[in-house]
Write a structure and sequence with these properties.
Blueprint (H helix, E strand, L loop, with lengths): L7 H9 L8 H6 L6 H8 L1 H12 L8 E6 L2 E6 L2 E2 L1 H10 L7 E6 L5 E5 H17 L7 E4 L6 H12 L2 E4 L6 H11 L3 E5 L2 E3 L2 E3 L1 H9 L7 E5 L15 E3 H7 L9 E2 L3 E7 L7 E6 L1 H14 L7 E4 L6 H13 L3 E5 L10 H9 L3 E4 L1 H10 L2 H4 L8 E5 L5 H11 L6 E4 L33 E4 L12 E5 L9 E2 L3 H9 L6 E9 L5 E6 L3 E4 L2 E4 H9 L4 E11 L3 E10 L7 H14 L8 E4 L13 H8 L14 H12 L6
Parallel strand pairs: 4-17, 6-7, 6-8, 8-11, 11-12, 16-17, 16-18, 18-19, 19-20, 29-30
Antiparallel strand pairs: 1-2, 3-13, 4-5, 9-10, 14-15, 15-23, 21-22, 22-24, 24-25, 26-27, 28-29
The structure holds 5'-O-[(S)-ethoxy(hydroxy)phosphoryl]adenosine.
Length: about 650
């Protein structure tokens, strides 16, 4: 298989990996799932399997008539059922002893903290749901949430879900244009933002970004502002449009019953990068999504009532949606939420949080683990990590070295590691060990969750033999699958269901070993994962060519020892502009402003031309060879093979080492 973005050094280290880690006996003894019997049960009738747990694990106002209606690629789960996710995550716990249990334990970057019991959450969610209604928000309306990691964010999500409004969370690290595009695509009526957000001791002016974005958003009627930074982030409130959160909730009525919603009622839109310049709005609906998030949270994280569970992701990404908010809260768990950076005020901040709250489960990214390896053991070693019993990773492949380090330095060899593979589109974890039942292998996400049918196929869609690379596909519908792309059903069909008809194409390359374990090697399309953040080459290229000095641009994800991948940009300047260091800096800044700091290229090379095929397609594969210092691949399909030699020469002239 030729893949455009496979990490070759990662592939080599995965090939060599042979170690196995069975569930530690102490862990297994108390685990919710101790044997593989659930896999057999699920495989024998996956619809009946999901239906059983939908019935026993979730609260329905009205039971469904049919578990699944599948007109490929259109799925309806729990047809005719009525449910509310806010009720499942909040109300149902307030009628049990969990009423006074901590639901969200929040730690602010400056060191302040807040705890919300389920009863507190119930009150806050109802108040804000009524505030939304007072602003004219109705069932089906879209609400964009653009804040930092403050408790008001999950409260607002649950409030939207309560009244049937569709939330669209935009990561607080995006800036004006990315926000504007997302608001406009979803045609949001209300935007919820924050005065300013803490990041490494300074303030990100979220409200100012939102003001600039909303100027180009004709559908936005109201803006709600959460006060967090206070006088550190002065804001201008536009009369009639802008309202303070605390003022709205102070006068809102305290009772707002959860609306019974159709199981397929849209719950949220979350934008993610794909293979075109325009981000796509992934649409998730209510009943099936909740079941996926609930069951995976329960079994993968082996959630116990006494646990402090912490997912370090940002709620702006899908991981935060499913595993800070919906999955844990539906299970009545205590979910820890942290506002700021992992190295503020010092590089032991995450471990200080584990120590402070006696966190039992920690779910984080391989990039963070590799960063910790670089920082050194002294930071975790300063802290008492004895409360930890389970560790997880997500978002990108984890190299075996990082897995072993995590296991030894953080887990002290005592905690199983769940390497969980999934996507914004899948809604919940699809490939993962169940920590009390499945032996793990460093670098492998192991096997599909019960009920999930994953396969690896070749170009023609034929399953490949063990240890052969291919494309990862899912061959049966699952409850938390995306239902469509917001406003673009054709793209949904084309993007996910056309390459291998009848099967969902993930965009990832993988192989399976003879034990049936999956080894994910990375994206095979133009999506890059930089520090676990999902970005699109084409989106960054479009932003680059919007700069007045740039004629053409091509970006590639190149290997990076810490971030997994980094962005290298090849830029052709318009005549009259000269390559220079200040211009490079200017272009990096430009991307930071247009998309957000996470999309800033690490390297920029100026070149006279770009390698294109005779049909004018940019050959990113060759540019990757250069960016990773490899010998050039096949250039015979280029319209002008000399272009590559020129680029390589200028690359060397810039002092970059060749491998
Ligand atoms: C990658 C994040 C290897 C993969 C939840 C996927 C992983 C993309 C893993 C989705 C893993 C996620 N091992 N690769 N455990 N988890 N990925 O939509 O390339 O931000 O397609 O969802 O992340 O990224 P997204």
């Amino acid at each position: 298989m030729t893949t455009q973005t496979q990490d070759t050094s990662l592939l080599e280290s995965l090939e060599k990996e042979r170690r196995k880690f069975p569930p530690p006996p102490e862990f297994k003894k108390k685990a919710l799932v101790k044997s593989k019997a659930v896999y057999k049960e699920a495989d024998s009738d996956y619809e009946a399997f999901w239906a059983k747990y939908a019935e026993t694990e979730l609260h329905w106002f009205k039971k469904w008539d049919k578990a699944l209606e599948w007109n490929a690629p259109w799925a309806k789960w729990f047809v005719g059922g009525q449910i509310n996710i806010s009720y499942n995550c909040v109300d149902r716990h307030t009628t049990t002893w969990r009423r006074t249990k901590a639901a969200i334990v929040w730690e602010g970057e400056p060191g302040d903290s807040r705890t919300f019991t389920y009863q507190d959450l119930h009150r806050e969610v109802q108040l804000f749901a009524n505030a939304l209604k007072d602003l004219g928000v109705q069932k089906g309306d879209r609400v964009t949430l653009y804040t930092g990691m403050v408790p008001e964010l999950p409260i607002a999500m649950l409030a939207c879900a309560r009244i049937g409004a569709v939330h669209s969370v935009v990561f607080g690290g995006f800036t004006v244009e990315a926000l504007r595009d997302r608001i406009n695509d979803s045609q949001a009526k209300v935007v919820i933002t924050q005065d300013g957000g803490w990041r490494r001791g300074s303030i990100v002016p979220l409200k100012q970004f939102a003001d600039q974005a909303v100027q180009g958003c004709p559908t936005v009627e109201k803006v709600v502002v959460v006060r967090r930074a206070g006088e550190k982030a002065p804001v201008t409130m536009q009369a009639g449009r802008d309202f303070w959160w605390h003022e709205l909730t102070a006068k809102a009525s305290p009772v707002c019953p959860a609306e019974p919603l159709d199981s397929e009622h849209p719950l949220y839109i979350l934008y993610t990068s794909g293979t075109t310049g325009k981000p796509k709005g992934i649409l998730h609906t209510t009943g099936g999504y909740l079941l996926g998030a609930h069951m995976t949270a329960k079994w993968v994280f082996d959630i116990k009532d006494e646990d402090y569970y912490w997912c370090t992701a940002d709620i702006g990404w899908v991981t935060g949606h499913s595993y800070i908010v919906y999955g844990p809260l539906s299970n009545g768990a205590t979910s820890v939420m942290y506002e700021g950076a992992p190295d503020f005020p010092e590089k032991d901040r995450f471990w200080a949080i584990v120590e402070k709250y006696r966190v039992n489960t920690c779910y984080t990214s391989p990039t963070f683990i590799r960063t910790c390896m670089k920082w050194g053991k002294e930071y975790p070693n300063r802290r008492d990590l004895s409360s930890l019993r389970l560790l997880g990773t997500v978002g990108e492949p984890i190299n075996p070295e990082a897995w072993i380090w995590y296991n030894e330095t953080i887990g002290k060899g005592r905690c199983p590691i769940v390497d969980t593979w999934w996507q914004t589109e899948t809604g919940s974890i699809l490939i993962t060990p169940l920590p009390g039942a499945v032996t793990t292998k460093p670098g492998s996400a192991t096997i599909p969750f019960p009920g999930i049918a994953a396969e690896i196929v070749d170009e023609q869609g034929k399953p490949v033999p063990p240890n052969t690379g291919g494309y990862l596909v899912v061959s049966r519908p699952w409850p938390s699958m995306l239902r469509s792309i917001w406003g673009d059903p054709d793209r949904y069909v084309k993007q996910y269901w056309s390459r291998f008809p009848g099967r969902y194409f993930t965009g990832d390359g993988a192989r399976r070993d003879k034990d049936g374990y999956f080894w994910i090697t990375g994206r095979v399309d133009d999506v890059v994962k930089v520090a676990g953040h999902r970005l699109s080459n084409i989106e960054i290229e479009s932003a680059l060519v919007a700069h007045p000095a740039v004629a053409e641009a091509a970006t590639v994800g190149r290997d990076d020892a810490v971030k997994g991948q980094a962005i290298a940009a090849f830029v052709v300047l318009k005549s009259g502009n000269n390559p220079s260091e200040p211009l490079k800096q200017q272009l990096k800044q430009w991307i930071g402003q247009k998309i957000g700091p996470i999309a800033r290229p690490d390297d920029i090379f100026f070149s006279a031309d770009l390698p294109k095929t005779r049909s004018a397609k940019i050959m990113r594969r060759l540019l990757r060879d250069i960016a990773e210092g490899r010998v050039l691949g096949d250039t015979t399909t280029l319209s002008d093979p000399k272009v590559m030699e020129d680029i390589r020469q200028s690359y060397i002239a810039e002092g970059k080492e060749e491998a």
